[in-house]
Amino acid sequence: MSARVSGRDDKAVTPDDSNVGDVAAGPGSSVTRGVWARVMKGAVEDAVRAYEAMGAGQRERVLEEALVVPADTRTRLVEVLRQARDFAGAARLLESDGDDRGAAPLYEQAGAPLLAAEAWLRVGEQARAAAAFERAGSLEQALSLYQALGARESLAHLLGRMHRPMEAAQVFRVLGNAHAELEMLRAVPADDAQRPEAVLRMCELLDAEGATWRALVLLADGIKHASGAGLLLLQAEQARLLQQLGLASAPEGSVAAEKAPPVVDGYGYLKAIPIFDGLSLEDMRDLYRLARPVLVPAGTTVLEKGAKGMGLVVLLEGMVSVSTGPGPDARQLNMLGPGAFLGEISLILDSPVTAHVRAHTVVRALRVTRTDFQYFLETHEAAALRIYRLFTQSLAERVKALSG
């Protein structure tokens, strides 16, 4: 029996009956015979075109028929499916042959993270399985694996996504990540029984970094919502900090919040960066938690021209100079201060730094590393789509401006 492949090849192909005997019950139909003939002849490119021309139902039939063909024929079909970009179909065939290690990355390419996670788990790749479960939204399964692996940083971030801030804060404390711990403690609701404990720990962190006024403002708000033993603890801490600032005689419950010097934490600056426009509140807080505070002494190189980009730097305090290079003959291009950001392109493109940036004064900044940002993209699908779209638009506008 001969068959034609619609719209691709008007030449009728008659497969060798000796090659298709094992699949006579399935591939013998006219709708799939053209693909099988090409597969068994090793004509991969022709088979790819024939497979691509099929409808969804016909492609599904090919996959069903593949279960009864010889292993070497099925292997050739897997390659056809890869090249036709049917990654899920190729993964199914590999999985049916027990090749979960080969199937898992193909399921990921197909956008099927749950199937990928299960395949990774079957081959003992627990870390990859946990990450895939997290991407799939199966957070409890991911949590169990992170706990078993002792992957504390991933565990802490996941606890935050699961709205378990006190647990997340405790893990971040063990990790020594005060910035992320503070962010998690802030997320503890005002009516939560652990809120006084969270406020006390936040005050300790803020006081340690010299932001005692912020701690007092936080205490004043916490006292409004506290009662019982929690209230007494907060009032005692308030009295201690007031005395530390020489304000022990201030009226009870008053911390002169209006006198508190403004302290920039960087969240507003991060939110204002164009490629993050449109991210939801929860996604922005997750991204902000990944940022690491850095203090750069005057004269120190922040970004080195020609070096591999290390991620985004958002300036909170101080000034940096941007020049054509590190040498004495370099030309200064700009001076940047609070609110400016550098290196955002390296978050997405693995490209070298195009200018030399040096701290003109002591600089306080936030840094988001490329590694942390990739984790964010992998675990926040909707945010990733929005960021890539805005990044592409921004890049197109830059190219247009340069060419104009």
What does it look like?
- There is one protein chain.
- This protein is of the alpha+beta class.
- The protein folds into three domains: 3-98 and 105-110, no CATH class; 146-247, Tetratricopeptide repeat domain (Serine Threonine Protein Phosphatase 5, Tetratricopeptide repeat), CATH 1.25.40.10; 267-403, Jelly Rolls (Sandwich), CATH 2.60.120.10.
- It has 20 helices and ten strands.
- The chain has helices spanning 17-20, 30-41, 44-52, 56-66, 71-83, 87-96, 100-109, 113-122, 126-136, 139-149, 152-161, 165-175, 178-186, 195-208, 212-225, 228-244, 267-272, 281-290, 370-379, 381-403; strands at 3-5, 9-13, 292-296, 301-303, 311-317, 320-323, 332-336, 341-342, 356-359, 363-369.
- The strands form three sheets. The protein has a four-stranded antiparallel β-sheet with strand order 3-10-5-8.
- A hairpin with a 3-residue loop joins β1 (3-5) and β2.
- It is flat.
- The N and C termini lie far apart (61 Å).
- Pfam families: cNMP_binding.
